[in-house]
Amino acid sequence: MTAPALGRDYRLLWSAAVSSRFGDALRTPALALLAATMTRDPRAIAAVTVAGQLPPLLFGLLGGAYADRWDRRRTMAAVDGARAVVVAALAVLVATGRAGVASLAAVAFLLAALGTLFDAASFAVLPSLVPPAALPTANGRLQAGTAVAGGFLGAPLAGLLFAQATPLPFTVDALTFALAALLALALPATPTARSCACSPRKGVEKGRFVAHNCKIGGGGRGLVWAEAWAGVRWVWRDRVLWRVSLVAGGSNLAISGIMAVLVLYALEVLRVPPAAYGLFAAGVVVGGLAGALAAGRVAGRFGTLPALRGVLLAQTVALAGFALARHPLAGGAALACFAAGTTIWNSLWSAYGQRHVPPELLGRVGAAQRVVGLASAPLGAALAGFAGEAYGVAPVGWAAAAVFALVTAGAWRTLSGTTGRAERRVEPAARI
C-alpha cells in the first residue's frame, strides 16, 4: 500500500497524532522529573501515575458510548483543545512555583479523563478515512510516525528543555495539543454512528458476533449506559477476545509497576543522569517504532495467536534482562525490546478490531477492551510505590519480571487452546 493511497484525510489524522505525540514525549518525562524534584518518596510519585490510570476505568465505557454518538472529528478537536488548556494551566503553576504533587496528580487525572473520549473517537474514526485493506498499513504508519516524533524528537529534548526552564516542556505540549485540535477540525465530518443498545448475538458470518435490532440516533441520556454495556457484552461473548483481554490485564499489572517508578529506577539503579533521562526514555519509543514496522510481517508469517505467544515470551526475557541491568545502555536496550513487543500487540489489536467490529460499536468495543486490559494498572502502580518505599526500587524490577513470567506461562497454554478459524478472529487488548 503506497502513501498516496491512504489519502489526504489520513495524512491529516497522522499529522494530528504526530503533533500530539511530540508534546506528550516532552511532557511525560518532564512530569516525572518535576515530581522527582519535589519528592523522592516512591509512593508520592506512584500516586501521580495512579491518578492518570483511574479515569479509563471510571469513564472508559462512557467515553466509548459518547464517541459512538457524536461526530468523532469534532470530539477529537474539542478534547485536544481542552487538554491544551489543562497543560497550559500546569505550565503557569510551574512557572509561578505553585505546582505540587497534588496538582501534578490532578493534571494527570484530567488529561487521562479527557483521553478516554479521545482514544475511543480516534480508534473509531480511522476506518472511515482509509479502505479496509489499508488498515494494517495505516495503523503501522500511525504508530511509526508517533514513535519517531516521540523517540527522535520529543523525548531527547525533554530533559534538555526541563534543564533550561522547568515550564518549557509543558508550554510546548500545550501548543502541540492546540495544533492537533486544528488538524482534527480539518478532517471531514463523520456521520453520527448508529446507536445500538442491544447485545451482540451470534450471527451467521462464520462465528462472528453481529449487532441486531439497532436504531438510528443518540437516544436519551438514560440509554447511555445501555449503549456502553453493548460493547462489554460483545467482548464477553467472544471467547478468544475475552481471553486475550485478560492476558493484557495481567501483563499490565507488571508493566504499570515498572512505569510507576521508572524515573527513580533509572536515576538510582541504572545511574542515568537527570539531563539524559529524556534520551533514556527515547529508547522505549525507538523500540516501539521497530515493533510498529515489524508487526504486519510477524503476524503474516506466524499467524496472530502464535505471534502473540512469541511476543509474550520475548517480553519476559527482556524484562528479566532489565531487572538484571545496572547500566543505562543495558537497561535502555532491554526496555526498548520490551516496548517493541507491546507495539506489536497493540498493532494487531487495532487492525483486527477496526476491520471486524461494526462501525456503530467501534468506540464501545474498543473502550470495553481498554477497561478490561487496564483494570490492573492502578493496582500495579500502587504496589510498586509501596514496595519501592519499603524495599527500594531495585526489587520492583524483579517483581515485575516474575509477574510477567507467570502471565506468560498461563497465556501460553490459554492462547494455544484456540486455533483454526478463531485464531484469525482474535482482537488483542491494548496494553500500556
UniProtKB/TrEMBL annotation:
Gene3D superfamilies assigned to the protein according to its UniProt record, in alphabetical order: MFS general substrate transporter like domains
Membrane topology annotation: Multi-pass membrane protein
Keywords: Cell membrane, Membrane, Transmembrane, Transmembrane helix
Superkingdom to which the source organism belongs: Bacteria
Keyword match Cell wall biogenesis/degradation: no
Gene Ontology, cellular component aspect: plasma membrane
GO molecular function: transmembrane transporter activity
Subcellular location(s) of the protein: Cell membrane
Name of the protein described by the UniProt record: MFS-type transporter involved in bile tolerance, Atg22 family
